[in-house]
Each structure stands twice: as C-alpha cells, then as structure tokens.
Specification:
The complex is a heterodimer of chains A (73) and B (504). Chain A is mainly alpha-helical. Chain A has three helices and two strands; from the N terminus they run αββαα. A two-stranded antiparallel ribbon of chain A has the order 1-2. Chain A is elongated and about 55 Å long. The chains are: A mainly alpha (73), B mainly alpha (504). Chains A and B meet through helix 1, strand 2, helix 2 and helix 3 of A and helix 5, helix 9, helix 10 and helix 12 of B.
C-alpha cells in the first residue's frame, strides 16, 4: 500500500511538472524570483520530500542481503 | 593576475589532496577501479553529485538562460531532481548490488553476463566511449572559455590573440595534467576524495557569485526588476520553449543511468544504505547549483555597466556569460574563486570520466580478450593507468577543435545515453529481455541518433527539434520499441542467467 502510494506520487509529480498556469506569467515573487521558476524550485523540494518518503516506505531491503550473500572479488 | 593565482593555488591544493588519498591505496584492481567498495554516505553524495554536475550545470545553464530565459531551470534542473533520484533509487542501488556480489567493475561486464552476449559488449564499448568523450569535452570547453574571460588582460604580450587571457589550450592542458596526476596514482579513491572537496568548492563559489553579482546590480529585486523592464520575455517560457519541447526533456536525465563514470561511482558505495543520503539530498543540491546560475544568466540579459553598455557584450562567444558577469561585476579575488569553482565542477566529472574510460579499456577489452587469470592485479592497475594516459591525451587533443555551445553539445551526448537506458532498466527489471532485443535496441539507437545528429547539423543547430520534441524522445521510442519487440520474438534468457540476476 505504502509502495503504491509512493509510485503514485512519482506519477503525480511527473504530471505536475507541466505547469501551463505560470507559462506566460512574469510576476516576481518576493520582488526578485520569477514565479515560473519559483514553482519549479518548489517542485524540486517536493521531489526531495517524495524521495525521503520512498526511503521510509519503499526501500528495497532485499538488496543489501543479495549483495552481501556473494563473495566480493 | 589575482584570478590566476587563486586558480593555481586551488589546483595545487587539489593535487595534494588527490595524492594524499594514495596513502590509502591497497594496490588491487578492485581498489583502483571501485575504491574497494568502502565509501560512506557523505562522500558518496558529494562525489556522485560532483560527477553528475559539470560545466554543463554552471556555465551551460547560465549561457542557456541568457539565451532562452528561466525555462531552463524547469527543463533541466527540476526534471533532474525527480529523474536522477529515481535512477539512483530504482537502478543505481541494484547495479551496485550486482557489482558488489559478482565483482563487476564496468557496466559492460554486467550487461554481457546478464544478457549472455559477447556481441552486446563489443557493440556497447565503442558507443559508450564515443558518447563519453564528447561529454567530457563539454567540461574542457567550458573551463577554457571561462578562464580566458576571467584572466583577460593578465598577459597582454604573451597571449595577445586572446586579449591577454590564458588561452583555452593552456587551461585544458593544466586541467588534464592535474586530473591525470591524482587519478593516475590514486584511482577512484583519489577521484572520490577530490570530488568531495570540489563539490563543496563549486557550490560555495556559485552561491558567493550569486549574492555578490546581485549586490553589484543593486540587490536581488533591482537585478530582476531590470529584466522585467527591459527583457520580460526572459522571465517566462513564452514561445522560447514549447510545451512538447518542455515535456520531452524528461528523458534527458535518464542518461544518468547509463553514464559509465556514474556506474563506477555507484560501485564505490560501502552498502546499499549509503545511497539513502544521495537519493534525498541530490535534488536539493541541484536546486542550490542551478537556481543561482539561471538567475545570473537571466540578469545578464539586462545588466548594464555605469556607462550604459551591456555587461555581457552582444555577440560574445558561447559559454562566457557567467565569467563575464563575475569578471566585470565583482572583485578579482571572487573571480579567482569562481574560476576555481568552475574548474572544480569540470574536474569533478573529468576525473571520473577519464577513469571510467581507462577501466573500460582495461576490463572490457584487455582482460576480457587476453585473459584475466594470466594478468596479475598489479598488471591490471598498470593497464588501467596506461589507458588513462591515452584517454587524457586524446581528449585533450580533441578539445583543441572548434568550440560549440556547451549546452547543445552536452544535450546531444545525453540524448544518446538516455536512449540506452531501456537496456539497463530491462536488465534489472524485465526477465524476458533478451540479448537479441538489447542488440537490436543498440543498433536502432545508433542509427536513429546518427540520423538526427546529422539533421541537427552535427550539433551546430542549438534549436534543433524533431516533431517538436527533443531528439532524445524519438531515439528513446525507437530504442524501447526495438528492445521490447525483438525480445518478445526471440528465445528467453537461460534459467541460469535468470537465477543469477533475478533470485527469488
């Protein structure tokens, strides 16, 4: 269930990358930051948050066991 | 002159650090090419980030935002924040596990065994080398154009042709020599240590440049307001970037899953858990590096000197916008620090790229076809070093040719790499993927990429799109279709291969 939610979150973020609402808006947020760019900076932070959740709920625990179960050459 | 002194000091410090790591070198091929799988979370984060970001991120992003505006951030940075981390999470960790368990030192070793095909390795080798060398050249081109701008006027008699600036051929020579020295002696461990330091340097330099330039332009608000008044089209995407073009950029960051040098860095991880910090913090680091550079590029479109002339003269050569802004608006000391930062960004990728190519020549050609058992560990390291020297010399000589826009040049390389991503993904997640499917995918990728590259005037047309999208989209679709269709109609992989790579 948690893994599914993470995967849905990835799909949602992929869709939200496309932002026609700010495409032609030159507004400066806080007086200096173009709003179209501010949106994508917030998007970047959201991506980091999503990956944090992925580590908590969708971490592939079997990978370490797999790697350690064979000899390192 | 001050800028040059700071940069020379930086190169000396870097060389010392790289050589210091030699004391930890154990003399084995595994240690030389994979740092003995000993790198922890912080150094993995810093070295992977430094390797992924090159002149493309600093110089290319500033130059491209100068030309097309803020849309560059969404095109490259925010897509990369999502996709790079996805590649690390879904692919990087698993490739590290295969490498650790079965002792792989290159991607080709893994793919050859997973797909049970020697032909696949032979096909991939020239393609990966052929894509990595131009990518590596973007770093040398970026460094050369920045240093010549920053040092203009320092040696008017010696370098009259470049206005007294250190010419790109000399910068390239210095960069190649320093990188070669520390990688030659210390292998990937030296690269990891150096990259950790260099990543800290170029991130700090970028932030410092951002605030000092803003201050010189009258503050953050004044700098942006000037753009809003004079060049408002730079604050939107408008018609500079079409929605389809914007969307198709999502495929470009997939290239990170195929970079040979990044694969090699994944192998250095001490454990799968070491990846956790990288997955989460990498997107934030992207924002810290890209946002200031994009804003500086946009500000440069409207920034004026006290006499009313543009800070960045019209008709300036590509890749110089960042250097010109720093050189004309800040102090020589900051110019030197930023120059060092750009050299850091360039060299933190170059070292890994050189080493990855040396490793591929050694492991995928010499040891594969002349017998690993007959060649001692010390000899393997020796071969790696000899190939390293050869790769550096070839790359340096190629960098002396015509400079193209770093951004355009880089995007073509990324397009080729990203089109190979389906082969890597299928190798890890799709049991039915076959050698014939992978070979078909590589052949189709090479053919379609070459046709589009030719249509794009061999990288000289920076605005080239196919069907309104990045050429990467077309190549990717053909590559995936060939892989899937041919895999489905050819014999499935052997039970032994499936048991080895897809254990229950």
């Amino acid at each position: 269930m948690a893994k599914t939610a993470i995967y849905l979150g990835i799909v949602a973020l992929s869709i939200l990358h496309h932002d026609p609402w700010f495409w032609n808006d030159p507004t400066l947020l806080f007086g200096f930051l173009p709003i179209g760019m501010a949106y994508h900076m917030a998007y970047t932070a959201a991506a980091a948050a999503l990956w944090y959740l992925a580590l908590q709920y969708a971490w592939p625990r079997e990978v370490d066991r797999f790697a350690e179960s064979g000899g390192d050459s | 002159m001050t800028q040059l002194i700071v940069m020379v000091l930086y190169l000396s410090l870097l060389l010392g650090l790289g050589l210091l790591s030699k004391r930890m070198f154990r003399g084995t091929a595994n240690d030389y090419f994979a740092a003995g799988h000993s790198i922890g979370p912080v150094m993995l984060l810093m070295s992977v980030f430094g390797t992924t970001m090159t002149a493309f991120a600093l110089v290319g992003s500033t130059g491209e935002s100068y030309r097309t505006g803020i849309g560059v951030y969404g095109l490259m940075a925010s897509w990369s924040a999502l996709v790079h981390a996805a590649v690390f999470f879904f692919v990087g960790i698993r490739l590290w596990a295969y490498g650790k368990r079965y002792g792989y030192l290159t991607q080709i070793q893994f793919l050859r065994e997973r797909y049970e095909s020697d032909l696949l390795g032979l096909l991939l080798f020239p393609i990966l080398v052929g894509l990595t060398i131009p990518y590596l050249l973007t770093g040398l081109l970026g460094a050369g154009s920045v240093v010549v701008s920053l040092t203009r006027g320092a040696f008017p008699d010696v370098f009259a042709a470049t206005g007294g600036g250190v010419p790109p051929w000399l910068t390239g020579l210095a960069v190649c020599t320093v990188v070669l020295l520390y990688v030659f002696f210390s292998g990937l461990r030296g690269a990891v240590w150096a990259n950790t330091f260099q990543t800290a340097v170029f991130m700090t330099a970028g932030i410092a440049a951002f605030f000092l330039i803003a201050s010189k332009l009258g503050g953050l608000s004044s700098a942006s307001q000037a753009v809003l008044d004079a060049r408002p089209e730079k604050l939107i995407r408008g018609e500079a970037i079409s929605p389809l073009h914007f969307f198709s950029y999502c495929l470009i960051p997939l290239s990170a899953g195929v970079f040979p040098h990044l694969f090699q860095h994944w192998l250095t991880a001490r454990s799968a858990s070491a990846f956790r910090l990288t997955v989460v913090v990498h997107p934030i680091f992207i924002m810290i590096v890209w946002a200031p550079c994009v804003l500086i590029g946009v500000w440069a479109t409207a920034a004026l000197m006290p006499d009313g002339s543009p800070v960045v003269p019209l008709g300036s050569p590509p890749n110089v916008e960042l250097a010109v802004m720093v050189e004309r608006l800040t102090t020589p000391w900051l110019g030197g620090i930023l120059g060092a930062g750009i050299l850091a960004a360039v060299m933190s990728s170059l070292d890994s790229q050189f080493l990855a190519l040396g490793s591929m020549f050694t492991n995928d050609i010499v040891l594969r076809y002349f017998g690993r058992r007959r060649i001692s560990d010390a000899r393997q390291v020796l071969f790696g070093r000899l190939f390293l020297v050869g790769v550096v010399i070839v790359a340096y000589l190629l960098s002396l040719l015509e400079p193209r826009s770093v951004f355009t040049f880089g995007v073509w390389c990324f397009s080729g790499f990203s089109a190979l991503f389906p082969i890597i993904w299928a190798a890890v997640y799709w049991r039915r993927a076959t050698a014939s499917g992978a070979v078909a995918s590589i052949v189709v990728t090479a053919a379609v990429w070459a046709a589009l590259f030719r249509a794009g005037d061999y990288g000289a047309d920076p605005g080239y799109l196919f069907a309104g999208m990045m050429p990467a989209a077309t190549v990717f679709v053909f590559s995936t279709a060939a892989l899937v269709l041919v895999s489905l109609v050819t014999k499935a992989p052997s039970e032994a291969a499936l048991a080895k790579f897809f254990p229950e």
